[in-house]
Amino acid sequence: MKINGFSLKYSAGELKQKVGKQMRKIVLIDAENEAYKNLSDGDKKALKYLVNAARIMNDVALEMDHPMNLVQKQALEVAAEKSPYAANALKLFNSLNGVAGSNGVDKEPVEIFEGIHQFEGRNFYPSDLSSEELRRILNKMLDENKISEVKNILSARTMVRRDGEYLKAIDYTEYFAEEFSEIANELECAAHFTTDELFKDYLGWQAQALLQNNPEMDVLADKHWAEMQNTPLEFTLSRENYDDHLTSTLFSDKALCARFAKHGINPVPKDMLGIRVGIVNQEGTELLLKFKEEMLKLASLMPLCDKYEQNVGGKKGLKQTMVDADIVALTGDYALCRGGITTAQNLPNNDKPSLARGGGRRNVYHRQVRQSGDKKKTKKILEALVAPELHKYYNSESDHLFVIGHENGHSLGPDSTYQTALGIYHHIIEEHKADMISATMMPEYVKAGIITEEQLKSIYLTWIVKRHFMVAFPEDREAHRMADLIEYNYLHDYGAFWFDKDKKLHMDFAKMQSGSRSLLEKIIEVQLSKSPEFAKEFVDKWTTWGKMSQYIAEFKQSLGIKPYIDIVTAF
Q1: Mean of the per-residue pLDDT values for the chain?
Q2: C-alpha angle with apex 220: 218 to 225, nearest 5 degrees?
Q3: What is the sign, positive or negative, of the torsion defined by CA atoms of 341, 347, 351, 352?
């Protein structure tokens, strides 16, 4: 079967398998949920406009991801009305939120159509632009003193297109002017109905940021967003740069980087946009705020903390809001379910100007995502791979506690200049750092009375089993999974855990603490080095794939893997 002249890559049977046995559902809340029922009439009306904005932003993200996404999706939607084969292809498309992407298991990307592949620079850059040509063009433009043009090309918020023998950058607000105008209108309507003044104010700033080609408007919107702690609704316009793998390659060219520095050019990978809509859950938020109270103390306990300025603490103080949210919609970047889906998020990221301008951060946790585990499969994994006396320590809520520590960890440690200097290893190292801060600082939460000693053991055991028992060797670009593999290998070699002759896990909880501290210090050293070469050496050393890793992966695969996700939205 052909869609717009491109043949579907998978047979009818293969597609049925992927969207059937290999796809799990994450069901977001509907109008019957108590969280929705408890909203005021005004906030219920506001919520509908926010969901409309989220739908429009999904088309923006599709355009950013691949030049063929929108046309192929539209064609699939038409074909799906008459063909079950096309309908299943559409389900797979909606899971990936695109024509291609990793599923976290297979080594090669999942590609729905013959002849349509992913590009290193997604659709942020011309599809035929290689890293070598990008460097050549940028050098030429610098030779000709086109400094401002190069700055715009390497901005996080521009689409780059060819301009004869040069490149030109088009700001998001211009490239997506029609879509952004529609989204801004939805936000202004939501602001009219919401009952919360802070939320109303934020929506107004965010709407204006979408309408003006002015990065300072993003700064103001981010600042207002990060100040909201007690609002009934959650709305996030997410800007993260994990998907642009082309800009990051520039950091390996030392001579070019020196030229950038001379002209005050700071290359930043492109932002993929997404929208999250939710309702703040007060009970869950109260737990988060207990963890928040410890962050300034944790900043002072960071390894090598005298060698860098903390993201929080010191003169900056702590500017951090945290909420647990019942999720209504996840679109755009949030819906690129390519091997996983995020359970929480700490924004703005360190590369965003609002932090340099004195703004704060905001953590948001996704209740429906973290509550979607498979208890039967987990039981089988524990029985096969974990010593019986440790089974009692596995608890899905302990994973949530670890994630809280992880997200808080992004606010600690060296600032963005140390992180982005690591080039293509930037995200692996940063996610790894956040993991190790969580693992290292968990005993401090015991001292503070937030968690118990038994919960600490549960957090460590659950972390290893849930995150480090992997289903396949990760791709270099899977930052979270590569971080998991580093941690698995290091802590295993440290003696924090081991496997007996029956291939069952045992754990030394004391060594989990000391080993985590040791590894955290090493990862801070990598960030402080600002050296992509040092980062590569570190990553290469600790991402080996041993026999036990392969055994675990094959066992988990034998239970049936569900690498595809169907986000069920009611609104």
Answers
A1: 94
A2: 90
A3: positive
- Structure token digits, residue 355: 């932090």
pLDDT (tens digit per residue) in 132-175: 999 999 999 999 999 999 999 999 999 999 999 999 999 999 99
C-alpha span between 64 and 37 (Å, rounded): 36
Strand 2-3 and strand 6-7: the pairing is: antiparallel
- Candidate from 362-371, 408-417, 422-431 with smallest mean pLDDT: 408-417
Strands (E), 339-462: 344-347, 361-366
Rounded-to-integer distance, Cα 199 and Cα 217, Å: 17
> Could you give the CA distance from residue 482 to residue 535 in angstroms, rounded to a whole number?
13
CB atoms within 10 A of CB 358: 11
369-381: per-residue pLDDT in tens?
Answer: 998 878 899 999 9
Return all residues near 34 (Cβ < 8 A) that are at least 6 apart. Answer: none
> Do residues 505 and 386 touch, judged by C-beta distance below 8 A?
yes
What average pLDDT does the segment 551-555 reach?
A: 96
Which of 464, 341, 459, 350 lies closest to 401, judged by CA? 459
Both tokens of residue 555?
A: 């066992």
* Average pLDDT over every residue of 210-227: 95
Which token pair is 489? 């290998």
Paired tokens of 369: 């995502």
Tell me: pLDDT of 314 over 70.
no
Residue 565 near residue 341 (C-beta atoms within 8 A)? yes
- pLDDT (0 to 100) of residue 417: 77
* Strand ranges in 333-453 using DSSP code E only, listed in sequence order: 344-347, 361-366
Backbone CA torsion sign across 500, 503, 509, 514: positive
Q: What does the alpha-carbon distance between residue 219 and residue 352 come to, in Å, rounded to a whole number?
A: 8
- The pLDDT score that the predictor gives to residue 313 is 54
- What's the token pair of residue 565? 């996700």
Length of the chain: 571
N-to-C CA span, the chain: 33
Let me know: does 141 contact 149? Beta carbons within 8 Å.
yes
Q: What is the 3-state secondary structure (H, E, C) of 113-148?
A: ECCCCCCCCCCCCCCCCCHHHHHHHHHHHHHCCCHH
pLDDT tens-digit readout, 465-498:
999 999 999 987 788 999 999 999 999 999 999 9
Of residues 503, 267, 277, 276, the one with CA closest to residue 385: 503
User: Which residues are CB-contacts of 349 (< 8 A; sequence separation ≥ 6)?
Assistant: 239, 240, 241, 410, 416
What letter does residue 256 receive in the DSSP assignment? H
In the block, which residue shows the tokens 């306990």? 301
User: Percentages helix, strand, coil for the chain, rounded to the nearest 5?
Assistant: 55, 15, 30
Contacts of 185 (CB under 8 A, 6+ apart): 207
**398-400-401 Cα angle (round to 5):** 65
Largest CA distance in the chain: 69
Q: CB-based contacts of 293: which residues, under 8 Å, 6+ apart?
A: 448
Of 422, 399, 406, 423, the C-alpha closest to 520 is 406
pLDDT category at 221 given cuts 50, 70, 90 is very high
Q: Is 236 helix (H, G, I), strand (E, B) or coil?
A: strand
